[in-house]
Design a protein that fits this description.
By secondary structure, the protein is of the alpha/beta class. The chain is built from four helices and 39 strands. The strands form six sheets. An eleven-stranded mixed sheet has the order 10-13-16-19-24-27-30-33-36-38-39, covered by helices on one side. Strand 38 and strand 39 form a beta hairpin. The protein is flat, with a radius of gyration of 27 Å.
Length: 363
């Protein structure tokens, strides 16, 4: 899989200069790049290490003096990181899954597979399942009864899609994704200790400990087009209505979305984020790593929550949040600054107490 400098530049909408017929077989960091590989030095900070490698061509930044860096050719995008998405797409060797239906795959006769669908070893596709054209079902995957998967989708190994889950086109699921498990929904016969504590913000009252009774999940999961999910991420079925994820949303590893939640379009949910049941998340929302959203709250469009933030109440659109409990980032920064000053303040107060105490004794 090799491309000329000119081919790569054209594919990513960048300018190519120098010997544009040079062939590129891969990409590497500047210091470790071998001949035939394109070095990635998209920021001036990394340019100095180009001399440590053997690359003759590099992807640089707009306006870079590539000749002074000893290169024979360069690709100069106006937005390097965006150009990187195109380069990696061109040079991705994939997972090596073979096309066609593997003889060990189990496909129910009532399942419907579109044109050019690949099914890997030991995969199971259940009755009534519908697999869109050009999709790849990796080894040891499971697709449940009446589930649907849009065209051009790609399931890595060990992906599980439960019954009646509906997924749009071009879905990508990394290893271990689990969709359509029952929601974590339990109830007690009488008012529980948890409900009492929630109503009073702490006091459990006279509520007695009781056994938990499960509420079954009659809904499923509905996912839009162009959604990606990382390894080990999970989405629970809705109780009555479906749990939903909008078009273009990207979900990182180990993210959990609870039952009845609604996630908007083009959101970014980073590693170990958790969305409580029945919470509604708007469009273009970014949740940093380990962000937690309480259940039954609403997050407006374009909200950003920094890593480790715990959101316990509704957030208006456009806010940038941080901390536990979450507050606007500017306010949280002031709180952090005040906390750093707290030890000195306590020492100053202690010193003042000594002075006052001595003055009192002198009187």
């Amino acid at each position: 899989m090799t491309y000329s400098v000119q081919q790569i530049a054209k594919a990513v909408g960048a300018t190519a200069e120098g010997d544009i017929e040079l062939m590129v077989s891969g990409v590497a960091e500047p210091a470790s790049a071998k001949q035939g590989e394109m070095a990635l030095a998209m920021d001036p900070r990394y340019a100095s290490s180009l001399s440590e490698g053997a690359a003759e061509v590099a992807m640089l930044w707009e306006g870079a003096d590539w000749r002074a860096l000893g290169l024979k050719a360069a690709i100069l995008p106006n937005r390097p990181r965006y150009a990187l998405s195109g380069v990696t797409r061109m040079l991705d060797k994939g997972q090596g899954f073979k096309p066609g239906i593997h003889p060990t795959a189990v496909i129910d006769p009532e399942a419907v597979l579109g044109y050019d669908v690949s099914v890997g070893p030991l995969a199971v596709i259940s009755a009534g399942a519908r697999i869109g054209a050009g999709s790849v079902i990796g080894p040891l995957c499971f697709v449940g009864v009446d589930a649907s998967l849009g065209e051009g989708s790609f399931l890595r190994e060990h992906v599980s899609i439960g019954a009646r889950v509906s997924i749009g086109a071009r879905f990508i699921a990394q290893s271990g994704v689990r969709l359509g498990g029952d929601g974590f929904s339990f109830v007690t016969a009488e008012l529980s200790t948890v409900e009492s504590a929630r109503q009073t913000l702490g006091d459990q009252g006279d509520a007695a400990p009781q056994p938990w009774t499960r509420i079954h999940s009659l809904g499923a999961v509905t996912i839009g087009a162009d959604v990606e999910m990382g390894m080990g991420s999970t989405i629970d079925n809705g109780t009555i209505r479906d749990t939903r994820v909008g078009d273009g949303t990207k979900i990182d590893n180990l993210v959990h979305i609870g039952h009845n939640a609604v996630i908007g379009k083009n959101c970014l949910l980073c590693g170990q984020a958790g969305v409580g049941g029945s919470t509604r998340v708007g469009d273009n929302v970014v949740l940093g790593g380990q962000v937690g959203l309480a259940d039954n709250i609403t997050i407006g469009d374009r909200v950003i929550a920094g890593g480790g933030t715990v959101v316990l109440s509704n957030v208006p659109e456009g806010r940038t949040m941080l901390g536990y409990p979450a507050t606007q980032m500017s306010k949280q920064t002031e709180i952090y600054k005040a906390l750093r000053r707290l030890p000195k303040l306590l020492r100053d107060v202690a010193a003042l107490q000594k002075v006052v105490s001595k003055a009192d004794k002198a009187d």
